[in-house]
Amino acid sequence: MVFLIARQLLPGNPCIGQALAAAGQTRPATSAPPAPPCAQATAFSMAEVLRCPAVTQELYLRLQDLEQLPAGLPRLPSLRRLHVETNRLRHLPAEVTQLDSLRELFAHENRLLDVPADLGRLRRLRQLQLDKNELAELPPSLGQLDSLRFLVVAWNRFTSLPAQLGQLRQLEYFDASHNQLLYLPATLNDLKQLRYAVLSDNQLRQLPAGFGDLPRLQELNLAGNQLTELPASLGRCRALKSLVLTGNQLTRLPPSIGRLRNLEVLVLSDNQLTELPRSVGRLRKLSTLIVRRNCLTPAARQRLTAALPRTTIYFD
Amino acid sequence: MKHTVTLPFLLALGLLSAAPALAQTLTPLLPAGSAWKYLDNGSDQGTAWQAAGFNDAAWASGNAELGYGDGGEATTVSFGPNSSSKYVTTYFRRQFTVSNLAGFTGVKLRLKRDDGAVIYINGAEVHRSNMPTGAVAYNTFASATVDGANESAFFEAVLPKSVLSIGLNTIAVEIHQDRPSSSDISFDLELLPDNSVPATTCATLPANHLSNFVSVMPTTQQQGISIPSTHTFQLLMQSGQPYTNAADGNTKESNDFTGYVPINGSSTNGYLSVNHEGSSAAASGVSMLSLNFNATSKLWQVTEKHPVNFAPVVGTYNNCSGGITPWNTVITCEENSPTAPTDSNNDGYLDFGWTVELDPATHAVRDLNNDGTPDKLWKLGRFKHENVVVAADRRTVYEGADEGSLSFVYKFVAATAGNLGAGTLYVLKLDGALGASTTGTWIPVPNATPTECSNTTALAQALGATNFSGVEDVEIGPHDGKIYFTSKSNSRVYRFQDAATGNTISGFEEFIGGQNYPINYGTGTASEAWSSGNDNLTFDSYGNLYVLQDGGRNHIWLVKPCHTQANPAVELFMVTPAGSEPTGMTLSPDERFMFVSIQAPDNTNTLAMTDAAGQPVVFNKSTTLVIARKSELGLATPTATKADKAAVQLALYPNPTSQQLTVELSQARAEAAQLRVLNNLGQLMWQQDVALSKGANRLQVPVSQLPAGHYQLLVRTATSATTRAFIKQ
To answer: How much is the mean pLDDT over chain B?
Structure first.
């Protein structure tokens, strides 16, 4: 069993001696006080969990140089929050998917190569953080996480996402930035509760046809992709307040952008735009428009300034 | 390329006797475009190639610029047979002669590197650029992609002239790709005499000033703290201690910003605000202590301890560092990762990633717009905040983002002095590449609406802000008015002059970092690597800058105001306990007392030190201390700590040595020990288990196989770890 001992176990932890013994390590020089009864709902080591598996609700194993979690992770019927971020984990044990009460799973900043295929069994999971790992794909069972509100998978190696992503009907926040995504699943349109979407720094050349039936979407960040155009359907994102498109290859915007009546921030820096559609004049709530480093003609600049008198426009 | 130099320098060189003060051209020590030997076969050359005596006769040669892929090369080198898997490292060497070292104070290095470089002169590393800290191997990638203007820029640094010898010198350079598929590499280099900052003598501090001390000897972390022998400490708080009101539970872990707030300007009566940089909203927060100094016992007393109630602003997350305002409130900063990013109370602002102003007396969040509801400081923007510093004008705030490639420096100017609830936000854009540009512009960043405030980083990026790779603390020099800030990934402290009017800055330069500094610890001088992780900054009123390190060996350094890279003036204030990072720090207004925290030391530390109050302190949990000179803190009772008494009496000779190092140590009892030899990167070079006898012990360490250089000998027992520096010739 490879289980590196925590660097930051909480002080006075009565279970450390057991943990060290279990891991085949030398017992430290300190003498452990008698173990108290199982009353703590929060554990900061596997030893504490092993002593009190039934009552532990939160388990913090962050920043402990862990290379893997011990095989035979016990049933933890009460565990709601699991922190294993900022370690060196390559895999999550299969037993993780048996944590029936789990609400929040923090496994970011590891070296994960995969996640359990039956991850979707975590039907109560509301928050899943897998960013800054080495993941190349997500299992289709992801779609079964029907309680999931927050999904962060940024800074991995994804080139695509499973179509089942669209089944996450409760999803409010989705961050898949800093991957190698070539395209998005068309089912993204099914995320009717989505409010924040961060898809920046990928390799997207286009958005799915019909993308835009996202009635609650407030913020959409697509900076640092290869988009050459946007679908007209984007204009159906009526709740959108912030649209960031820095660093793409856009040569034109669809006239339907004028339908984004709630848009406050529109960022178009570092594209190939020569003009914006006249319809932007209908963006009455637009407070900030950034169009630095495009190819706007002097006439196009004048038209913009005239069309958006209440908007602060950054041309340079 | 020609450079200009002014009269005093030429006079010093004897090149001008009496002439008008006209700028003259300056002859480089090693010009750009020189011929270099190079090895471009993708091989692992280990470290032998760095040495002056290495035989590079079989290497190819050609004039700089050397490289491939961007069209500017005088000599094209090979990237190997596979364009999608190019060689990571290409090696370069050449010799050059220096006939005179008089008349200049340093050596200006001008380096064109795409992507990263490590430079050695006469076998010793003198500089690295865009490379990770620690050991570098032939398959180590550069830290970041180099593109745009940075591909052809010459990055400048000033080296001590002691890196050169009169006569023949050897320079060796390794250029590293940032990834196998990168399209190009570039290399050229120039060395010039530098006299830009003449050597100065630091002002003498008052004899009893906190910052007047003899450095501690640099070592690896041990179980306790090591501070100057003239100073002592007192424990104020450790994690897990109960709050005053039992219902509030215990103080949390990961003590961070440690801000002393004086009451009516007092240096003996105030509040201490301690951040807890937790991994979740539940583990984060701020503890507010009330404390005063008893003139009779000469000790501090903590009279109350309360958690700050952040419930009205839906909690805080990762309370990292912070600042004290001129109007004596506390600002705590959320260095959040995107955990639970939502607007749970539907006020238009995302919940986390802000700065928050606290009233220390009520330990509550301030209501800035007098609507009856506390507010976070929305207008200062949402990003991964480290700290803030508020200028004496009560309106201007400087802050930085520790946010990877989006690590920007910001300025906020409040509409009303003393109220940070409204104002204009700016982000710094240098006029050229970092390392080459000395001027810049503040770009306004929209912050009128909640949506704009929540998207600060995206807006700043779109407006062309300069990335400083992990901005940590930002402070204002009390002696020069310059803005100083740490770049953690670049392992540098930068500084610049903000214009009194208008939106420009000037004099942007590197202040410290990126090299070894001589530390005179009284009985010797050690060359200590600045290494990685410069983090929190604190000035005293004389301009002495304390730098707290989260990386490397986690020291607390002190950099004197007269420091230059060519003429270092650096001291070492503390070697911190094993596993910990020093955080904080603030000083009392009279600068008699320093308040600092030791974040998350190893829980296996068992050594008990005795503080100024006579209480044993084991650094096995996050700990907040006050430190002062011994004359200021505690009575004149024995102040030697148990650690001092138990310290191993250890001597090494000969030092420097070439074949054998003799170790003599005196033991209070017989016990097992381990001897380790570490190089200046902290890498283990040799170790041996030994059985020590009670009394005198004499041991031999074979060093003949070690490359020439600086090393540390570590003697570790079950209860102690003692380090001594030695030099292998």
So the answer is: 88
Contact A223 B337 (CB under 8 A): no
Report yes or no: B685 and B703 within 8 Å, Cβ to Cβ. no
Q: Please state the rounded mean pLDDT for residues B228-246.
A: 95
Nearest CB to B341; choose among A196, A241, A312? A196
CB contact under 8 A, B463 and A28: no
Which amino acid type is present at position B12? Answer: A
Question: Which residue ranges does chain B devote to CATH 2.60.120.260?
Answer: 4-194
CB B724 within 8 A of CB B701: no
Q: What whole-number distance in Å separates Cα of residue B307 and Cα of residue B296?
A: 30
Q: Where in chain B is the domain with CATH 2.120.10.30?
A: 231-644
Per CB-CB distance under 8 Å, the chain A contacts of B720 are none
What fold, for B231-644? Neuraminidase (2.120.10)
CATH H-level superfamily of A204-316: Ribonuclease Inhibitor (3.80.10.10)
Q: How far is CA A17 from CA A7, A10, A272, B719, in A?
A: 14, 13, 63, 18
Are B375 and B369 within 8 A, CB to CB?
Answer: yes
Structure tokens at A157: 């190696």
Beta bridge partner(s), residue B425: B412, B445
Alpha helices of B315-419 — where are they, by DSSP H?
A: none
For A13, name the nearest residue in chain B, comparing CA atoms only.
B603
Q: Is the pLDDT of residue B190 over 90?
A: yes
Which residue does chain B place closest to A127, by CA atoms? B340
In CATH, what number does B648-728 get? Answer: 2.60.40.2550
- CA–CA distance, B263 with A285 (Å, rounded to integer): 46
The phi, psi pair for B321, rounded to 5°, reads -100, -160
Contact list in A for residue B343 (CB cut-off 8 A) is 195
pLDDT value of position B214: 95
- Using the predicted structure, report yes or no on whether residue B656 has a pLDDT greater than 80: no
Q: What confidence score (pLDDT) does residue A277 get? A: 97
**CA B514 to CA B531: how far, in whole Å?**
7
Global confidence as pTM: 0.73
Whether the CB-CB separation of A117 and A138 falls below 8 Å is answered with: no
Rounded to an integer, what distance in angstroms lies between the CA atom of residue B423 and that of residue B421?
Answer: 7
Question: How far, CA to CA in Å, does B206 sit from each of B99, B209, B629?
Answer: 42, 5, 12
Give residue A80's pLDDT band: very low, low, confident or very high (50, 70, 90): very high
DSSP string across B253-316: S-EEEEEEEESTT-SSEEEEEEEE--SSTTT-EEEEEEEEEETTTTEEEEEEEEE-B-GGGT--
Residues of A with CB below 8 A from B465's CB? none
Contact A301, A276 (CB under 8 A): no
Averaged pLDDT for residues B84-93: 94
B4-194, which class in CATH?
mainly beta
Do A57-198 and A204-316 agree at the fold level? yes
Contacts for B346-350: CB closer than 8 Å, 24+ residues apart = B347/B450, B348/B449, B348/B450, B348/B451, B348/B454, B349/B376, B349/B378, B349/B382, B349/B450, B349/B453, B349/B454, B350/B382, B350/B454
Q: What ipTM does the predicted assembly reach?
A: 0.83
Q: Which uninterrupted H or E stretch holds A301?
A: helix A298-307
**Cβ A224 vs Cβ A200: under 8 Å:** yes
Q: How far apart are CA B169 and CA B174, in angstroms?
A: 17
A83, A173, A265 ranked by CB distance to B452: nearest: A265
- In chain A, residues with a C-beta closer than 8 Å to the C-beta of B337 are 108
- Asked if A196 lies within 8 A of B238 by C-beta distance, the reply is no
Tokens of B78: 């090979």
Superfamily of structural domain A57-198: Ribonuclease Inhibitor (3.80.10.10)
Predicted pLDDT of residue B100:
81
Domain boundaries defined on chain A: 57-198, 204-316
pLDDT band at residue B106 under the 50/70/90 scheme: confident
